[in-house]
Design brief:
This protein is an alpha/beta fold and 242 residues long. It has 10 helices and 11 strands. It binds D-malate.
C-alpha cells in the first residue's frame, strides 16, 4: 500500500485523489471534536469552510435538528451555540442532532479532498479504528495533516505517524512511504513513550493551554478513547460501525 502524508493542507491542489482513501487529521481539535460528537450519539457532523457557509447551512437545515458549532482563534464564534472544545459535546448538547462544525484549519479540508473514494476523520482518540479501516479498504492512502495556521503541527504529524506504525506493526502491511510519511513515523517513534508531553509542547497545545483549554489538549491526547469511525457521506461525517 502506498501512503502519502502531507504535513500541511497547502499542496492538496496538486494531489490525485482518484480511488484513494483519505484520512483528514486535526488532533487539536476538530478531528477530536468530530469523534466526540459522533461518540455522543449525534446523527452526523457537517464540516464547513467558513462561518458564512455554516450559518447558511443552519438556516437551510432548520435549527430544531441542527447545532451550530465552531471557533475562531480557539474560542466560540459569536452567535454560534457551541465552540470547538471536545468537552462541550455530550448526549445532552448534540445527541440525535446534526452538528454543523466550522473551525479554522480542520473542517475546510474536507471539501478539498472531495474526489477521494473514501474520506475518514482521524485523531489520536480513534487512531486504531482508523488504521483498521484503512487496512480493510486496502487502497492507496493519503494522510492530510491539517496543521496550524497553514504550517506544520507536531500533534497531527504524530497522529499520522501512529497510523503508519499501526499499519506496519499491528497489521503487518507492506508500505511504500513518501518522505513526509517517513518523517511522521520517525517523529512518532521518538515520542511514543509520552505523546501527551510531546503534544503539550507544540505551538497549538501551548496556545490552547494559555487561553484556558489545557484540558482539551489532554483529552485530545488520549489514544483510542473515542473509537468511532467518522466517514464522509454526501457532505456529512457519519459514524460507521466496523
Ligand atoms: C482548527 O481547525 O483550526 C482547530 O480545530 C482549531 C481549534 O483548536 O479549535
Amino acid at each position: 500500500m502506498r501512503i502519502q502524508l502531507f504535513l500541511t493542507s497547502g499542496p492538496l491542489h496538486k494531489v490525485d485523489f482518484e480511488k484513494k482513501t483519505v484520512v483528514v487529521v486535526d488532533v487539536l481539535r476538530s478531528s477530536t471534536s468530530i469523534c466526540t460528537i459522533l461518540n455522543a450519539g449525534a446523527r452526523g457532523v457537517i464540516p464547513t469552510a467558513g462561518p458564512g457557509e455554516a450559518g447558511e447551512m443552519w438556516t437551510k437545515l432548520g435549527q430544531e435538528t441542527t447545532v451550530l458549532a465552531g471557533e475562531r482563534e480557539g474560542t466560540k464564534i459569536e452567535n454560534f451555540q457551541l465552540g470547538n472544545s471536545p468537552l462541550e459535546f455530550n448526549r445532552e448538547t448534540v445527541g440525535d442532532k446534526n452538528v454543523i462544525l466550522c473551525t479554522t484549519n480542520g473542517t475546510g479540508v474536507f471539501a478539498r479532498v472531495a474526489r477521494a473514494e473514501l474520506t475518514l476523520s482521524g485523531a489520536l482518540v480513534n487512531v486504531s479504528t482508523v488504521a483498521a479501516a484503512v487496512v480493510g479498504v486496502d487502497r492507496d492512502t493519503i494522510i492530510v495533516c491539517s496543521g496550524h495556521e497553514g504550517g506544520f503541527s507536531i500533534e497531527d504529524t504524530l497522529c499520522g505517524g501512529m497510523v503508519i506504525d499501526l499499519l506496519k506493526q499491528t497489521h503487518g502491511c507492506y508500505l511504500e512511504l513518501n518522505d513526509a510519511a517517513t518523517l511522521a513515523l520517525l517523529l512518532y517513534e521518538a515520542n511514543r513513550a509520552d505523546l501527551p508531553k510531546a503534544i503539550a509542547r507544540g505551538e497549538h497545545g501551548r496556545y490552547l493551554t494559555e487561553i484556558g483549554f489545557g484540558r482539551d489538549v489532554e483529552v485530545s491526547s488520549e489514544v483510542d478513547s473515542r473509537p468511532v469511525l467518522p466517514v464522509m457521506r454526501d457532505g456529512r461525517l457519519v459514524r460507521v460501525e466496523d
